[in-house]
Amino acid sequence: MANSASFNKRQVEKNKRAKRKEKLKKKEERKNAPKSTFEDMIAYVDENGVIVDTPPENEKPVQPANQ
């Protein structure tokens, strides 16, 4: 019985070390990833209602609806 208990303790400790190592790896990846800027987050909607990432080249004046 003592052997299985100590084996379990070693496995738990091994798993903890692996999780810590994976967490540090992910942290470094996030740290080294390029930062997104406000300009990267802007989206535009074209005249057909499709979302695009480039601004419209020429804007047409909007015609008011007849009432």
Give a quick summary of the entry.
Helices cover 52% and strands 6% of the residues.
SS-based class = mainly alpha
Beta percentage is 5-15%
Model regions low in confidence, pLDDT < 50 over at least 5 residues:
none
How many helices? The count is 2
Query: Could you state the oligomeric state of the chains shown?
Result: single chain
Domain module tally: 1
Report the C-alpha radius of gyration, rounded: 28 Å
How are the strands ordered across the major sheet?
1-2
Structure characterization notes:
This protein is mainly alpha-helical. It contains two helices and two strands. A two-stranded antiparallel sheet has the order 1-2. The longest helix is centred in the N-terminal third of the chain and has 31 residues, at 2-32. The protein is rod-shaped and about 85 Å long. 0% of the residues are buried.
Q: What characteristics describe this protein?
A:
2 helices; 2 strands; mainly alpha; single chain; two-stranded antiparallel sheet; 67 residues
Write the layout of secondary structure elements.
Layout: H1 2-32, H2 38-41, E1 44-45, E2 51-52
Antiparallel strand pairs: 1-2
